[in-house]
Amino acid sequence: MTNSRLLVLFDLDGTLVDPAGSITGGIAAALAASGLPVPPAAELDRMVGPALKDSLTGIAAVPADRLEHVIAEYRRGYRQTGMASSRPYPRVADAVRTLRAEGALVAVATQKPEPLARELLAVQGLDLLFDSIHGSPADERLAAADGKVSIVRAALAQHAGEYSTAVMIGDRSHDVHGASANGIPCIGVGWGFAQDGELEAAGADAVVQFPEDLVPAVHSCVRTAGAHGTL
User: Fold this and answer.
1) pTM of this prediction?
2) How do residues 156-202 score in pLDDT, each as one tens digit?
3) Contact 78, 111 (CB under 8 A)
4) Which CATH class is domain 6-18+87-227?
5) Where are the domains of the chain?
6) 153 and 182 in contact (C-beta within 8 Å)?
7) Contact present, 31 and 70 (Cβ < 8 Å)
8) How far apart are CA 50 and CA 136, in angstroms?
9) What is the CATH architecture assignment of 22-85?
């Protein structure tokens, strides 16, 4: 039996933390260091959020035999400077604290490798805000093909019996798809890396533009989904 608590899952990059160019700049540097073409800025922005290996192969067209080298170059630079240069989005942590104060469980569900996600949250002083943190395997070759779907599923499974309703919050279409595939609503945020209309086209239940609107949107989303019998 589940109780009446709410479980709120947060994406990481583009939702909780602003990479401040560390992801796009880091990918560009890793590609250049590997002697590979660097995509235009708009294409680099599209690479924030999905699994890195998928972005490198699908957007940057990195050959399979160069993929591990590019990833290693990127991770080295990200650990050296990228995590420290990233910044929490203003007031988003306040929304997390408010949800916790209201009795909700809060967790992170990201396609970033889980050990790296834990490091980033610790560096930014956010790790203790969350009841659990879920990401991809440290060895990205072992990542599930369905990406965010499996990660959301793992977060829900860890808290099985502890909640009765759940909501996902994220900035990209794959956050919406991961939530939908697991039967939960998704609130999109407008301060991340989604292209215009991306979240709406993916079927987000709501899209908010400011962090102070997050908690009211969660309440509204839960009420609407409950009234429709989908939670």
Assistant:
1) 0.87
2) 999 999 999 999 999 999 999 999 999 999 999 999 999 999 999 99
3) no
4) alpha beta
5) 6-18+87-227, 22-85
6) yes
7) yes
8) 11
9) Orthogonal Bundle (1.10)
